[in-house]
Amino acid sequence: MSAATDPQPSGSVDELRARLAKLHPARIDLTLGRVERLLAALDHPEQRLPPVIHIAGTNGKGSTLAFLRAILEAAGLSVHAYTSPHLVRVNETIRLGRPGGGVLVSDDELAAALAHCERVNAGAPITLFEIETVAAFWLFAQHPADVLLLEVGLGGRLDSTNVIEQPLACVLTPIGIDHTEFLGPTLADIAAEKAGILRRGAPVIVAEQDDAAMAVIEREAKRQRAPLFACGQQWHVQIEHGRLAYQDERGLLDLTAPKLFGRHQIDNAGLAIATLRAQTRFNIDQAAYQAGLLTAEWPARMQRLTTGKLLDDAPAGCELWLDGAHNADGGRVAAAALGDLEERVSRPLVLIAGMMANKDAAAFLANFTGLTRHLIVVPIPDRDGAMPPDRLAEAGRALGLRVELAEDVPAALRRIASLAYELPPRILITGSLYLAGHVLSLNGTPPS
Description:
Helix content: 25-40%
Number of helices: 15
Distance between the termini: 30 Å
Strand content: 15-25%
Largest sheet: 8 strands, mixed
Shape: globular
Mean pLDDT: 95
Strand order of the largest sheet: 4-3-2-5-1-6-7-8
């Protein structure tokens, strides 16, 4: 059955999602059984997809995918993409490939896909993310494309996306401590879950990793007889004289540095380049690599807000930055990017932060203690599981930060504007992708 032959979906996308969210009591319940059951009932759309590049890791998945998409589209290819979580609208998670550039799925297409999956599922238990992933596969199978970039939601081994039998390539971004309640307490445990996406014979391209994580990845790659392309071994990337220098056994690429800001984006760009050079299906020339680095965009990752409503509340002449970092490693790379900014142009720095309750606030905030003494804590509105502001404030005070609480982000910006700084400050809003999405919505600049 296709969407065209289905009755009209009963309800908007938001109404459908609210109804689907009631089918299973747990928001996260890692298993493949429910997804495999529904995919079988839909006649296995996951077996009718374009070639898949599957991406797992703790940090950098979305940015690496953004570089891959921009490079492939610059080479003239049509690219489907599946990412999570969304920032403002769930449509952001599904991008349908088109000649000349992909587009976010429309409300009508998404509602039809969700309604079709709802009917076929017939009330059986399934999580919202699981049925949204199945709907994405069903949509991708309806539309031809040259490649599908598939981002893992959480973990890897038991993630809803891990039903692809023979991917074109498997990619592992940096792995760190996060989601320990689902993936295990140690880095080796977490790496084993992430490496669960590896498949027999499919090349695995790996970012620089901690030794404990790398040992697990190497062992699983050997077991799967999967060729391993690891940063620092089979390929190298660095900045030389302000340019990106990438090298592997096929030679050297000398490229303009990427538009996405932060030294970590050099590593993410290198991982994307290595992924495309580790397979033989697509022949990408240097011009496409260069164009991709200069056009890749990924919202809420060291994104400077230069337009929008929030600037009316911010101090005149300030720099307003947004980053969705939410764990210790994410905080480290955000702090490094701020350090680079400070070296270029020195300004006082103020953090505005809100976090989820299952995150290590102290480990996250510790990254910024050498850069600022001023933290303003805000709540994350309408989000179950958000960390109480008092608890986040306590973590900041324990690190010696001057902490204030504000009722929301505009109030925090107005508070900063009321202070007498010698230079307009640099402001970073951070701590959660949910907060970042809320900020983009407030600002009137949602992803498009």
